[in-house]
Design brief:
Blueprint: E1 2-5, E2 9-14, E3 17-23, E4 26-27, E5 41-44, E6 57-60, E7 63-66, E8 79-83, E9 87-94, E10 100-101, E11 113-114, E12 120-129, E13 132-141, E14 146-147, E15 150-156, E16 163-166, E17 169-172, H1 173-179, E18 184-186, E19 191-195, E20 199-205, E21 209-213, E22 219-225, E23 242-243, E24 249-256
Antiparallel strand pairs: 1-2, 2-3, 3-4, 5-15, 6-7, 8-9, 9-12, 10-11, 12-13, 13-24, 14-23, 15-22, 16-17, 16-19, 18-21, 19-20, 20-24, 21-22
């Protein structure tokens, strides 16, 4: 476990996973073992969304990739690259066509291994400054590689009536619950505020949208995404791809507590 500290905040990181963000004694991150979700954060890459109705195949310029829900990155392990008192950086590297064991097999998937036909390097770094946590994702690899990116943090809820403010509109927890597993789409948005016992604002750079998901009342996931997958059929997920240019693609998420 890695701990980052500032005057008012502490951050806990377990093998690249954000497991705690405490500001002035208040825990903002959903805790493993609590109802709702087995994780506290993860990344969705190189695809976002389910693939089961497309026989777990996603169309790419090099043919077809075998991908389960939200891609193969979350099945890989991070390696620690650097660490200071207020920062840490991790990396995952993938060699094209390398089979990655699928944790959903055999109970929830017919595919035992996931395969992507491109090399890539995925870096995740944390930087804590006072009451602000900045998380940066840096993607490098083959020029022209298609990809989507989503960040999937879960926030612990302390009150009975939290609200989410986005694009000057309020979203209730009941509205998120009503959408179910598809997750509530928040289009064209780069800043969301979760108003609970304490407030936290999630600001992004590089991402275009959010989606919000929960199936319980004690947590909510507020997820920056490059593409909302339910705008197309699963067979057409490739329509949501961006392409990697000649330089690294950089995305940022800031958790800000005032």
């Amino acid at each position: 476990m890695i701990e980052l500290k500032s005057k008012h905040a502490t951050v806990g990181i377990d093998a690249g996973e954000l497991v705690s963000f405490v500001v002035d004694g208040h825990e903002f991150i959903h805790q493993k073992g609590s109802p709702g979700w087995r994780s506290s954060d993860t990344e969705m890459f190189p695809i976002i969304g389910p693939t089961n109705e497309a026989d777990f195949r996603v169309e790419v310029p090099k043919g077809e990739a075998i991908q389960d829900q939200h891609g193969l990155l979350r099945e890989m392990e991070y390696e620690l690259q650097s660490q200071t008192g207020d920062s840490a950086a991790f990396v995952k590297q993938y060699q094209a066509e390398t089979p990655i064991k699928n944790s959903k097999f055999p109970d929830k998937s017919s595919e035992s291994d996931l395969i992507w036909p491109y090399n890539f390097r995925f870096e995740k770094s944390f930087s804590l400054q006072d009451k602000t946590l900045e998380i940066t994702f840096t993607i490098s690899g083959e020029k022209g590689m298609p990809f989507m990116l989503g960040y999937h943090p879960a926030f612990k809820l302390h009150s009975n009536d939290p609200t989410i403010t986005a694009n000057q509109k309020e979203i209730s927890l009941d509205e998120v619950l009503a959408v179910g597993s598809r997750a509530l789409q928040v289009q064209n948005c780069t800043s969301i505020t979760l108003k609970d016992a304490k407030e936290i604002t999630i600001k992004t750079e590089g991402f275009s949208h959010f989606m919000c998901w929960t199936e319980v009342r004690n947590m909510v996931c507020i997820e920056p995404i490059s593409f909302y997958p339910y705008t197309v059929n699963q067979e057409d997920l490739h329509l949501g791809f961006q392409k990697l240019g000649g330089e690294k693609a950089i995305y940022k998420v800031l958790f800000i507590v005032f």
